[in-house]
Amino acid sequence: MKKLISVLVFIQSVILCYSAIIRVPQDFSTIQSGIDQAVNGDVVLVSPGIYQEAFSFNGKAITLSSLFHTEEDTSYISSTILEPVAQADYVLILNSNESRSSVLKGFTIRNNQNTISEDGGAIRIYDSSPTITDCIFRD
Question: How far apart are CA 79 and CA 67, in angstroms?
Answer without folding.
Answer: 10
